[in-house]
Amino acid sequence: MSASKPKRSLVEAAYAPSTLKRYKDAVSRFLSWCSDQDEDPSSPEQFDDVLTDYFHHLYESGLGKQLAHNTLYGILMHLPHLKHHFHLSSKSLVGWNKLHPPKSYPPLTWELSCLIAFRLAVDGHFRCAVGVVLAFDCLLRIGELVGLRVEDVADAKDARIGVDSVDMTLRLRSTKTGPNQWVVVENPVVKTLVRQLVSSSPPDSFLFPFTASVFRNRFKSACSDLNLSPLYVPHSLRHGGATRLHLLGRPMEDILLRGRWASNKSARRYIQSGKAMLMTMDVPRRVQDLARATSSDLLLLLTLAQSHSVKVR
User: Fold this and answer.
1) Which of 151, 260, 279, 303 is the least buried, fewest Cβ under 10 Å from its Cβ?
2) 56-67 pLDDT per residue, tens
3) Residues of the chain whose pLDDT is less than 70?
4) Are residues 229 and 90 in the same domain?
5) Which of 221, 249, 250, 245 is nearest to 233 (CA)?
6) CA 248 to chain CA centroid, nearest Å
7) CATH number of the structural domain spanning residue 134
8) Cβ atoms of 234 and 135 closer than 8 Å
């Protein structure tokens, strides 16, 4: 009987498709490098040495720390028994992190999120505008936002829920921490805006019919128009929403559940750093005042911007 490649489909199914692709690509690059260097380790210790050399190659070539992380975890995805043998390579990543600490995306306040939404609506991107405040309220990742379909919205008393619910619930088909999760829309203004989108959309269509890249580019353009920091990214909405809940006194466990975090430890550190990061951001006073005014009349302003725009889509 000829040797066959070990089956790994069930192992791979445990990972999100995007994560799986990153891991596979990273491991493929590592194997190509090993071939070029004529490296063929025959023991776990030798494997650790070769991987450590590869990480130094990546570091000296400026190819990025994330690629090194993806390589390590991609290897461990299929060879978990090597985990306790990767002493040098793991230490190399620790050293890399100390030399170049990871940068967290700063959180946005609710007021600034409303201002960004208004800017998008004025530019004719009403659905992007609603996406901004929905992502903030529901702590949505960008992939979760653009993956929403009309049928994924269950409003109050939706027969599919089977109870007399007063909430608006979103079904999240695919998330970083697993399929078929959900979150309740809490902000009354955001609920009204989502209802507008649902009522004006075909039944089986995407609620936000654009790609993550398009949303990201429009978001960054709006921030630039408002002279906001280029450090703000769509993920700042999720970080800002979680930070706001924490500042309002919501129990940490509630926030972790609402944000669908896989690791409680990292999420706690991430959320608790939010207030300090808010204090490091320099927002001009006039922009702060405009943001507060916008947030107080968000529904009216977005509705007016939508009705007066010639580019609504």
Assistant:
1) 279
2) 999 999 888 999
3) 1-6, 163, 309-313
4) no
5) 221
6) 22
7) 1.10.443
8) yes
Q: What are phi and psi of 41, to 5 degrees?
A: -60, 140
* Strand order across the beta sheet in which 168-175 lies: 153-154, 168-175, 178-185
- In tens, the pLDDT along 275-304 reads 888 888 889 899 999 999 999 999 999 999
> 257 with 132, same domain?
yes
Residues contacting residue 168 through CB under 8 Å, at least 6 positions apart: 153, 154, 155, 156, 184, 185, 191, 194, 195
Question: 93 in a domain, yes or no?
Answer: yes
For residue 313, being part of any structural domain is answered with no
Nearest-angstrom CA–CA distance, 307 and 310:
8
Residue 71 and residue 123 share a domain? no
pLDDT digits (tens, 9 = 90+) for 3-47: 455 677 888 888 878 889 999 999 999 999 999 999 999 999 999
CA pair distance 200, 84, nearest whole angstrom: 55
Which residue range is the domain that position 127 belongs to? Answer: 110-148+187-308
> Is residue 159 domain-resident?
no
